[in-house]
Design goal:
Elements: H1 3-16, E1 25-30, E2 32-33, E3 36-42, E4 49-50, E5 52-55, H2 62-74, E6 77-89, E7 101-111, E8 121-127, H3 129-143, H4 149-154, H5 160-168
Parallel strand pairs: 1-7
Antiparallel strand pairs: 1-5, 2-3, 3-4, 3-8, 6-7
């Protein structure tokens, strides 16, 4: 069984205990500063580093969800959103029926000071292209089965779905 299949199996077990049904609509925000990208280390599955992101749910629009998620996860206020990419990807989440998502990715300009949400994130910070590449290399090894789940939890790479999007957007 491949590591991706193991991740799906593990997340499907988490989904069995979830009371929230997935709306299959998600947003992701690319926030840059001084040639670095803002990433958060996710506290909830799927684990790993990723840009700020979340489900649309009852936020209303994709844009409203993007603004709300940036505020919720990092305490920043969005001043401008620009849609850069959208599409469907087969990726599991911890919610029931969360086997795929239609994503809209934005660049976001923000203001304020980063304040990490302790319920959502382990840490939030700025990462250089070189640091993102190192995280991506770690994800490749994890997906190839060269890194155990325990090792991944202690020192993760890019969250697997974000890894796929970053390749698609030619960011890695």
């Amino acid at each position: 069984m491949s590591k991706e299949d193991e991740i799906k199996r593990s997340l499907s077990k988490v989904q069995e205990t979830s009371n929230i049904i997935c709306d299959n609509k998600s947003v992701g925000m690319i926030i840059k500063k001084d040639e670095k990208i803002l990433l958060n280390e996710r506290k909830k599955p799927p684990f790993g580093f990723a840009p700020l992101a979340g489900h649309v749910d009852d936020h209303g629009s994709f844009e409203d969800a993007a603004r709300d998620e940036v505020k919720e996860e990092a305490g920043l206020t969005v001043t401008k959103l620009t849609l850069i990419f959208e599409g469907r990807i087969e990726n599991y989440c911890r919610r029931k029926d969360g086997t795929w998502h239609y994503w809209k990715w934005y660049t976001a300009e923000t203001e304020g000071k980063i304040v990490a949400n302790p319920d959502e994130t382990i840490r939030v910070g700025w990462y250089s292209k070189r640091e993102v590449k190192k995280l991506a290399d770690r994800t490749k090894k994890y997906l190839a089965g060269e890194i155990t789940d325990d090792e991944w939890l202690k020192n993760p790479g890019l969250e697997p779905a974000w890894f796929e999007w970053a390749k698609e957007m030619k960011m890695i």
